[in-house]
Specification:
Blueprint: E1 2-5, H1 7-16, E2 21-27, H2 33-44, E3 49-52, H3 54-60, E4 69-73, E5 93-98, H4 103-115, E6 120-124, H5 133-138, E7 148-151, H6 154-163, E8 167-171, E9 177-178, E10 188-193, H7 201-205, E11 209-212, H8 224-242
Parallel strand pairs: 2-3, 5-6, 5-10, 6-7, 8-10, 8-11, 9-11
Antiparallel strand pairs: 1-4, 2-4
Helix pairs in contact: 1-2, 4-8
């Protein structure tokens, strides 16, 4: 279970991802007209509403005294690395993040992962953004659909995935192969690093192939969440093309 705090965040979820909200929490005796409107909308949607003492809600919000309303969010069912194995019909699509420490980037990547039907997002227990209310809000509720897997050692996790028959593509601006030139219709893990530092050498050495996103000379690099969205979209584009009847062109 995770939470988002504040009227704007709660309003966004009720408007765009109400199925991810399990409970609305509202401070006793201090609700504004905006909060009351959100409570009414939650009740209309059939979402339970609980009143809490303001001090208790403040404590849950990490001491932010202005918080009067919050939403509890359900998270996707947990998944183990051993469950991410290819099947006869399809292989898993996984995103692994190395040293992505911005919660907004983490949430945006989870949102893209949900949009393009990825099976999991894997991060390290260290050097990784927390799944806080900023990340949950940036995910637009996608945390309910794509599991976030935290592992003690990313290198060991990559080795285990490769042993399970999963191909690892590392995103690198210096790669000679462009993403659309690679065979992405296979069980795969997309490995991305933080903007600037990129993927650590040890992890990059474990990749089966490095791929790049072709950029104009006006831009040297993209935000990691943008890169993740582009690569996930390319994976799904290739899958769509591969399912067309023989001889069909598009």
């Amino acid at each position: 279970m995770s939470r988002v705090y504040g009227a704007n965040a709660v309003g966004d979820l009720l408007a765009h991802a109400p199925n991810t909200v399990t409970t609305i929490l509202v401070a006793k005796g201090s609700a504004s007209s905006e909060d009351e409107s959100l409570v009414a909308e939650a009740e209309r949607l059939g979402i339970p509403v609980r009143s809490l003492p303001r001090d208790m809600l403040k404590q849950r919000a990490g001491g932010r005294g202005g918080v009067r309303i919050a939403a509890e969010i359900r998270l996707a069912d947990p998944v183990a690395l051993a469950d991410l194995v290819p099947t006869e019909s399809q292989g898993p699509l996984i995103v692994m993040l190395d040293s992505v420490t911005d919660p907004h980037n983490l949430g945006a990547i989870i949102r893209s992962a949900a949009a393009f039907s990825a099976d999991a997002v894997i991060v390290g227990r260290d050097r990784s953004a927390p799944l806080n209310d900023a990340a949950v809000r940036a995910s637009a509720g996608a945390v309910a659909h794509v599991p976030l897997v935290r592992v003690a050692n990313l290198a060991r996790a990559l080795t285990d995935l490769k042993a399970q028959g999963i191909w690892v593509y590392a995103a690198s601006a210096s790669a000679k192969m462009q993403a659309w030139e690679a065979d992405l219709v296979r069980p795969l893990c997309l490995l991305l690093g933080a903007e600037g530092k990129g993927i650590r050498p040890r992890l990059k050495s474990l990749a089966d192939q490095e791929i790049a996103i072709g950029l104009s000379n006006a831009v040297a690099s993209l935000n990691v969440s943008v890169s993740a969205g582009i690569l996930l979209g390319e994976v799904r584009r290739q899958h769509a093309l591969s399912s067309l009847p023989a001889g069909h062109t598009n």
